[in-house]
Write a structure and sequence with these properties.
heterodimer, A: alpha+beta, two-stranded antiparallel ribbon, 6 strands, rod-shaped
């Protein structure tokens, strides 16, 4: 046989290399055997893995070691032990995981985080788990609480929608009322407060106007009338019958209604009246502005200061005169 | 009554303007303004008719204002002219014609008014105008009560007093219900007032076949009070109450009772003047009371003022009370 010494050395070196690699611990599948392995080395490797509690890898080495007759028995025993310990470790790990999940679920539950507690409890409901009963109960609680929360939020959403609708309706009604008032105002008559040299005389004139106006609105009910009530005429509303227009706030935006009403809501007829209160013969006057007409109308009547009956009669008649001219001006606006 | 609901019964703008002004003046008079407004209204209505002879509403109001001004000789032909045109305004023209005849205070006028009212009643019943029927019946009570006190044929007075009582009480028993509150109140007032006047006359003259004076006066007072509940402090009612007290004072057994009753009568007349002093009658009545009380100066003042007012008190009546007042001793003036 003509082997060279060099070739033989190479082969020996290869064998030694392979065998040393076989002795190195690793977590993966052991490398395929390339040559005869020293007896018991796999067993020792398996035991080493056992010590390191890597039971899976140890199983594989035990399986390999079991192929050798000399250590079969030990390998099988070791394999048995590895399987048992591996199973125990898995079981323990599973229980620990379950306990942690349960604790987490209960923690979520105690903090009212129902969705997460639901997920946690749900994950514990599976065949083979230890805490199925608690998990089911916890899941039921979580679902119940979520249903309740959902219900509350639906109700509050519904209430919110209703209030929004109501606010819209109220705003619409106010807007409609405002427009209506503006139209009414444009059709109305305004008699501005009387002007007089003294407060007392001014109050007297104002009281006379109020009385005259009330009596003329319903002369049938007037105590002074001596004929049956038969005159019914469509008197326009007087400006101070209308409510004051305030600024209205809708949705946070203020609408300058009072300003708009002053521009657009001008009455049909505006009367400025007063009396001078001079003695013995004074006069009352009235200036009527009709909307759309340039020239105002001017009227003047006498007011006697004496005797007292004459003053009373003339002050009263002054109010009636103002009302007559105002109403006539209003009618002439409708039909010039 | 719907007459004033359609004042656009002319195409002439000047006629319409005059009419409108006149209508407001008339309304002011009804409400308690001076008789000057009535005169102005009459002028306006006449002006409207000059522009448009077919302006029936203006003619109708002209007739009413002339009646109020006691120009019944002009009022009645104007109202009859409306009939020629076939215009009756739901029986209101006929009622005004009847009223104008009553205001003539003549026996033939009363009979014409009675006939007019009967015709109106028949026509209104046929045309189912219930309000006009009520007004006609109420005016009938008023007519008969006036006849009971003012007929020249004094023998007929008790007959008409009985008619007033039976007609008025029959209507009250049937119940008064107009199409609206104004009609109902107006009719009720006229019935109560008419019954009060009728019983007052029965008590005043003590006719046979009627209850005694005390009972009659009590009934009159009762009906006047009921009229007051319908229209408190109405001028005609205050004047009637004053007249009742005056009549009772004339029939009072004791002088102090007579004085007390005269004082009450005076208060009623003065209250009526506060509301409407455009009539002679309350001044005349107060002058008579002043004469009975021996107040010469007051009597003369009242006569002077009252004669200048419009009214139906005859000159002979004024002269009589003036003569009596002048015979009174002059009242002592205060210490120098």
């Amino acid at each position: 046989m003509r082997f060279s010494r060099f070739g033989l050395a190479i082969a020996t070196l290869a064998i030694l290399t392979i065998s040393s690699a076989a002795q190195t611990p690793c977590c993966c599948t052991p490398p395929p055997r390339r040559g005869p392995t020293p007896v018991g080395s796999e067993l020792e490797v398996a035991r080493a893995y056992m010590d390191a509690k890597e039971y899976k890898t140890a199983e594989e080495y035990f399986i390999l070691a079991a192929k050798q007759q000399k250590v079969r028995k030990q390998a099988l025993e070791g394999l048995r032990e590895a399987l048992k310990l591996g199973h125990d470790a898995k079981e323990k790990e599973r229980q620990q995981k379950e306990n942690q999940t349960l604790e987490t679920a209960e923690l979520y539950e105690s903090n009212g985080m129902w969705s997460k507690s639901e997920d946690s409890f749900r994950s514990l409901i599976a065949p083979g788990t230890d805490h199925v009963t608690e998990a089911k109960a916890g899941l039921a609680r979580a679902l119940n609480e979520q249903w309740r929360e959902n219900l509350y939020s639906k109700i509050s959403e519904c209430i919110k929608r209703i209030l929004e609708a109501l606010a819209l309706i109220v705003a619409s009604c106010l807007l409609f009322a405002y427009v209506r008032i503006l139209f009414k105002r444009r059709k109305s008559v305004e008699i501005l407060p009387f002007v007089a040299p003294t407060e007392e005389f001014k109050n007297r004139l104002s009281a006379g106007l109020a009385y005259a106006r009330a009596a003329m609105l319903d002369p049938a009910a007037s105590p002074a009338t001596t004929v049956p009530a038969s005159l019914v005429a469509g008197l326009p509303p007087f400006i101070d019958d209308l409510p004051e227009l305030e600024d209205l706030e809708i949705g946070g935006a203020k609408l300058p209604l009072a300003a708009i009403s002053k521009i657009w809501g001008t009455p049909r007829v505006e009367a400025r009246s007063g009396a001078d209160g001079l003695e013995p013969l004074g006069s009352g006057y009235s200036v009527m502005k009709i909307r759309g007409r340039e020239m105002p109308r001017f009227h003047k009547w006498q007011i006697r200061a004496t005797p007292p009956n004459a003053l009373r009669d003339d002050v009263r008649d002054f109010s009636y005169n103002v009302l007559i001219e105002v109403l006539s001006a209003y009618d002439s606006y409708k039909k010039p | 009554m719907t007459v004033t609901k359609n004042p656009e019964a002319t195409k002439d703008p000047d006629a319409r303007r005059s009419f409108t002004h006149g209508a407001h003046c008339f309304r002011a008079y009804l409400a308690g303004g001076s008789v000057r407004f009535l005169e102005e209204a009459k002028t306006d209505f006449a002006a409207a008719l000059r522009r448009d002879d077919r302006f029936h509403l203006a003619r109708f109001y002209l007739g009413i204002t002339q009646t109020q001004l006691r120009e019944t000789d002009e009022a009645i032909p104007e109202l009859l002219k409306l009939r020629e045109f076939g215009v009756d305004f739901d029986g209101q023209v006929s009622l005004q014609i009847a009223y104008a005849h009553i205001r003539r205070y003549r026996d033939d006028g009363y009979r014409t008014a009675e006939q007019e009212l009967k015709t109106t009643l028949v026509k209104a019943s046929q045309e189912k105008q219930s309000d006009t029927c009520l007004q006609a019946k109420a005016m009938e009570v008023f007519l008969y009560s006036v006849m009971a006190g003012r007929m020249h044929d004094e023998a007929q007075r008790p007959h008409y007093a009985a008619l007033a009582v039976s007609s008025g009480e029959e209507q009250l028993k049937q119940g008064v219900g107009g199409s609206n509150e104004r009609i109902t109140h107006g009719v009720l007032f006229d019935i109560y007032n008419g019954l009060g006047i009728a019983w007052m006359r029965i008590g005043q003259y003590g006719w046979e076949g009627f209850p005694d004076r005390i009972t009659s006066f009590k009934k009159a007072e009762g009906y006047y009070q009921q009229a007051q509940t319908v229209r408190p402090n109405a001028v005609p009612l205050l004047q009637n109450l004053g007249q009742l007290r005056d009549i009772q004072s004339d029939l009072a057994a004791r002088p102090e009772m007579a004085r007390k009753l005269r004082r009450e009568a005076q208060e009623f007349f003065e209250r009526s003047l506060e509301l409407n002093d455009h009539d002679q009658f309350p001044f005349y009545s107060l002058a008579k009371i002043a004469v009975k009380d021996g107040r010469r100066a007051d009597a003369l003042t009242l006569i002077e003022i009252g004669r200048a007012k419009p009214g139906a008190v005859k000159d002979e009546s004024w002269n009589e009370v003036l003569k009596t007042a002048l015979k009174l001793p002059e009242e002592p003036t205060g210490p120098a």
